[in-house]
Amino acid sequence: MSSLDLNYSEVEEELRANVRALLAERAPVNATLARTEAEQTTDLALWRALADELGVTGLPVPEELGGAGASWRETAVVLEELGRAVAPVPYFGSCVLATAALLAVGERKILPQLASGEAVGTLAVPFATAPGPFRPAVRSDGGLLTGTVRHVADALTADVLLVPAVAGDGTPELYAVTGAYVEPMVSLDMTRQLAVVTLDEVEGILIASGADAAAAVGLALETGAALLASEQLGVAEWALTTTVAYAKERHQFGRPIGGFQAVKHRLADLWVQVSQLRAVARAGADAVTRNVDIPLTAALAQAFASGTAVTATEEAVQLHGGIGFTWEHPAHLYLKRAKSDSLALGTPDRHRARIAELVNL
């Protein structure tokens, strides 16, 4: 693997500060917790603010296509902050999965709409789909699509679905669809609701076919796996920071619980794991940006990030004591996001197996 740049630039840190300030003002965790009880769990007002006020919905898209002309590194910084806030917006589906697929095929009509935030898109595959062979559940017949795709992330608010399909002769295809029937599912992560997408001879616009379609879907999944680690980093950092603060103020036997050796050791071990996760996440973002070793770096990112984020949020729940187990405390939102992310785009075991294949073990 070639040398990777794991450092944050001044521009990236400035971007982080702006996104964090917006989220603190518009999407405090308590408001997100209350939103999970609402009929519409996605915060569309926050989505508009991210698009219109900060312009972060098209960071890796070239300026001539309405984007910011930045890179996936900046996108990763935004994902860190969205993870830290468990923000209920369709950023991952639209600005990562769908955008990566469209960039891969050089699409020029839908991409500007996604880059501006005017439209929301997502890749219509089960959220647990790992990078690998092209195996869609949708069949195409003369541009008419039929099939059902379950567990699609960010589909409920999507204006356009990018649907992988297989033609009658087995040719891979990728379509843009606006007329699918989308039905919500009961989702573990209440801040990222999944949906069932049903197509019954629905007309689609052909975006790519053959090897180009298969490569676009594969690259989108690999890009998603690499950048998902940044969201997981944000979740883990919130868990660590919040738990350390609580350990300083919660007293037992006349002293802060953070003063007890057992608690100190658990938090110290967690700090080490989160620091390692930061390096892994930055490596994933840099590899995707420079188009270097993406399959291996993406697999490494998810093999490590998933377990660390789950461990961090489990520790947050346990070390908060009784309050950490209540519905009123936001810790469960982070635990559910971490667990959901650990299943997304392939489990850690799948990615470890992928690593073995890539390095010929």
Structure description:
- The chain is α+β, with helices and mostly antiparallel strands.
- It has 3 domains: about 10-120, Acyl-CoA dehydrogenase/oxidase, N-terminal domain (Butyryl-Coa Dehydrogenase, subunit A, domain 1, Orthogonal Bundle); about 140-210, Butyryl-CoA Dehydrogenase, subunit A, domain 2; about 215-360, Butyryl-CoA Dehydrogenase, subunit A, domain 3 (Up-down Bundle).
- About 50% of the residues lie in helices and about 15% in strands.
- It is built from 11 helices and 10 strands.
- The protein has helices spanning about 10-25, 30-35, 45-55, 70-85, 90-105, 110-115, 210-250, 260-290, 295-320, 330-345, 350-360; strands at about 120-125, 140, 145-155, 160-165, 170-175, 180-185, 195-205, 205-210, 250, 255.
- Strands 1, 2, 3, 4, 5, 6, 7 and 8 form an 8-stranded mixed β-sheet that branches. A two-stranded antiparallel ribbon has the order 9-10.
- α5 runs antiparallel to α7 (about 210-250).
- The longest helix is centred in the middle third of the chain and has 39 residues, at about 210-250.
- The radius of gyration is 20 Å and the shape is globular.
- The two termini are about 15 Å apart.
- The mean pLDDT is about 95.
